[in-house]
Amino acid sequence: MFRYLALVWDIRSQAQVGIARTLAGRMTTAPKSWRQIHQSDGVSVFCADTSHGSLDAHSLGRESGVVLGALFKRCIDSGEDGAATHASFDEVESRCIVKTQGRRLIEAYWGNYVAFLIDEARGRIWILKDPTGSLPCMRVVHHGVHVIFSCIEDCLAFNLVRFTVNWPYVADYVLGGWTNGESRSLNELDQVTRGECIEIDTTSNRLTRRQFYWKPSTFALGPHLLEDTRVAATLLRRTVRHCVRTWAGCYESLLVRLSGGLDSSIVLGCLGGQGSVASGRVTCLAYYGSNVGADPRRWARLAAHHVRTELIEVPVDARHVGLEPLLNAAPTPVPAPLVSYYLANRIEREVVRDRAVTAILTGEGGDPGFGSLSIGRAIDEMIRNHGFIFRTIQLAAQIAAIRDTTTLRVLADALRRRAFGTRLRDNARLFDKLGQMASYDTRRTALAYDHYPHPWFREEAGVPWGLVYRLGMLLTAPEFYDPFPASGGHQANLVHPLYSQPVVELCLRIPLYVHFLNGRDRGLARNAFTAEVPKEILQRQWKDRGANVNEELVAKNLVFLRSVLLDGVLVREGILDRIAIERALSNTPTKAAAELPVILHDLAIELWVRKWSNCAASAAA
């Protein structure tokens, strides 16, 4: 898969020049096909596995930098819903990008990229991570040389740094899976956050400044909110179709993960009529388990038939799936959902190989983006924007109906939040649920934050839960590389079109109470995509209970889970409670459904910690 590694050094330092030369030499002779795509005084950028038309290197004029990944021009005509034009830079545009220190890229382009911008006259280098993409941007310092890269395995291959685990980060991650964006997962690893630009002074080779060019609050709390439901629905349809079709045009063969739910059906529906479905470039895949009540095939068939494309239905029987292969997962910069990756890899590997699939499209991002996770906070935005009017009472009644509570309770909770603000501990029940096996100290420490620990919210007085719930995976470190790479090297890129920058920005500009149109979950999206999604799916107001995969996995792997967790590193460090693990992994025939994902979540963290402990031991040896 596409990857990059860049070196930044002080050309006046003989020691750094020697180290950079040595590293560059090792890369050119490495087994992986590294290609140098930029070289200037003190900067060298290498790429591997580039693909023209999707993830590639885009050079700026006059050797002033390079943009790595996928980059598209913003569509000026708001009525356009076809694929965007790929970016290319002449000298004038290149000068503009460097002069604005990369802000021009945020404003005039979108995609999945990392940019290296060089101004030799001012002695500055800027490294910019795009606002919503999944391509990682990480940095370590090796004897004064900055090494910026996308895949941490490359950093390990060159033995640049001995990484050590940051235990407070791990404790935060255990308590529910939200990551502390203001803390490093590995003490020596610096993540460049989405929408962030770091500046390196080439006269000293020191990182002198980091700033955000993009923050979600700019759109959600800005002056240009979209409250006209007709205009909002029209723009939502055009923007989503535009982004889905742009990504689809980057790849030869597509696989759409089709759950039969609204979001994945919207993504598939936006491909209809484009020519890609009719030409056989798109195949759909639906999983189903042994739980008859959670069988998605009826809905998936409706969505596939609607655009006349092939649907492959694959059973998921986890009763015979051992979790021992998780021990062989590749190292990742942050804990990854190993079980999800492993199961998807097992299920999709054959289809990806046989159909020569180059990209897998998902409906991820729909639930947070279309407001499904934030219905309860719609009342907060209504009060903030309009105060107490009749529509406020009406909205409170609609929320009460869908949340199974009273109108008075909805209003009272909203007024309390407005008067006293919100903190992490206000969601203590959520953390108690997700941190069932966490120790007392772990829970107490994590709940002590007065704000949500992500740099986007550093200036917030409290926790803007309504905004947090709308961002989904954007709050976490990018996940780009599969920890279970397929043998033979062929991998498909995982693409989430609903996390595209134009879609995210538009969804944030639309208030939650507009997304909650007519008191329906994702009501605006249902209204916007009537042509793309079958009527039966649009009218469906419930989510099926998940398949029995978690129950089957835990039952099958009890011995393995006990051996890994009971005397594991997390227990030894006091992050997990051994008694709670014993109770969760007892031999009782039934377990609370809420415990099962927590068990697998904590397993992934335990294996992640062990992986890095082993890597540190190997590096030391």
Automatic annotation (TrEMBL):
InterPro entries according to UniProt: Asn_synthase (IPR001962), ASN_synthetase/amidase (IPR051786), Rossmann-like_a/b/a_fold (IPR014729)
Source organism, top-level taxon: Bacteria
A GO MF term: asparagine synthase (glutamine-hydrolyzing) activity
Ranges of residues in domain Asparagine synthetase: 236-610
EC number: 6.3.5.4
Pathway: Amino-acid biosynthesis; L-asparagine biosynthesis; L-asparagine from L-aspartate (L-Gln route): step 1/1
Protein name as it appears in the record: asparagine synthase (glutamine-hydrolyzing)
Upper taxonomic lineage: Bacteria, Pseudomonadati, Pseudomonadota, Gammaproteobacteria, Lysobacterales
